[in-house]
Amino acid sequence: MTLSFRPLHPLFAAEVGAVDLATVVAPDTLDEIRAGMHRYGVLVFRAQTLDDHTQLAFAERFDGCLHAKTGAAALGANRFGNEALVDISNVDERGDLLMADDRRRHYGLANRLWHTDASFVEPPGRYSMLSARIVPPVGGDTEFADMRAAWDALAPDMQSRLLPLQAHHSIAYSRQTLGFEFSAEEAERLRGVIQPLVRVNAVTGRRSLYLASHASRIVDWPLPEGRLLLRELMEHATQPAFVYRHQWRAGDLVIWDNLATMHRATPFADGEYRRELRRVTTLDVPRV
Ligand code: OGA
Ligand code: MN
After folding, report:
1. Atom of ligand 1 nearest to the CA of 266
2. How far is the CA of 3 from the centre of ligand 2 (A)?
3. Residue 71 and residue 65: Cα distance in Å, rounded?
4. Residues lining ligand 1, judged by CB closer than 6 Å?
5. Whose CB among 13, 28, 39, 128 lies 3.0–4.6 Å from 244's, allowing a Cys bridge?
6. What is the residue with the minimal CA distance to atom 4 of ligand 1?
7. Angle between helical axes of 27-40 and 52-63 (0-180°, round to 10)
C-alpha cells in the first residue's frame, strides 16, 4: 500500500490518506507511517473507526510499549480501569460534565500549558495517539509546535551552550504553577526525572529542543537562571511560525512525536459541551 501525505503546515504535520488504523497490520504500511512520523512529527488520520480496544492494539502494533504511569494515575484510577488509556475528556464516570470545582477538571486544565507527554518519567513518552470520539461544536483545538524547527532557528553559539544541558521534569511542578495542590503522598509519586534539553532523532539525525511546562529547572544551574532560560526558550519555540493548530472532527486520530514536538489544548465551553478523547502514549524504548 502507498499512503498519501498531505502537508498541513510549511514545517511539519501532514494528513495521511486512506488507511483504517483499526485493521491495518501490513508491516510495509506500518513502516510508511513510521517514516511519516520521522519526517512530519505530527500525522492526522481522518474518519477512523477506533474504539478503546482497537486503539490500544494499534498503538502496540505501531510502536511497542505503552506508558501507564501517568500523572492522573497518581491521583486515582480512571474510569476505563486501564491507565494506558488516558481519559482526555470533561466528563465523569457517569458521562456527566465535570463540575467547575472538580479536581479532575482542574488537573486537566493544565493541558493548556505547552508540554510533551510523559517527559516526567523514565523512559519518557515517544508517540501519543489521540482519538476524538465527541468534540464540541466550537473551540477545543489542539496546537502543536515543531521543536526541530525551534532548534534549527537558534544561533550556533546558543546551540553549543544548550547541547550539554539537562532539565528536571515533573508533572507536579507544571500543575503547581497553576495553583493545583498535591498531597505529600501524591508529590512523592510524582518526583520527576532528569532529561536532556536537546534530543536527536536516531533515524533522521535531526535535533530538537526538549521542553515542556514540566521542566522545573536546569540541572546544576541557579534556580532563577535556569527558569529564565526555560521561559525564553519556551517563548522562542512556540512562536506562531512553528505552530500548527488542529481543528478536531469526531473520528480523527492524531499521532505526535513527543520527542520532536510540543502541544497544548485550547479553551472551549467545557461547562456546556462534552469533549471526549482517548490517548495512548508509547514509551521511548527500542521497538520489539
Ligand atoms: C493530550 C493533550 C490536548 C487537548 O491528550 O496529551 O495534551 O487538546 N491533549 O486535549
Ligand atoms: Mn498532552
Report:
1. 8
2. 27
3. 18
4. 88, 111, 117, 128, 130, 142, 263, 265, 277, 279
5. 13
6. 265
7. 80
Complete domains list, the chain, with CATH: 5-89+98-282 (3.60.130.10)
- Do 33 and 17 meet the contact criterion of CB atoms below 8 Å apart? no
pLDDT in tens, 248-275: 999 999 999 999 999 999 999 999 999 9
Q: How many CB atoms lie within 10 A of CB 253?
A: 24
Cell of 165: 544541558
Placement of cell 546551540 in the chain: 159
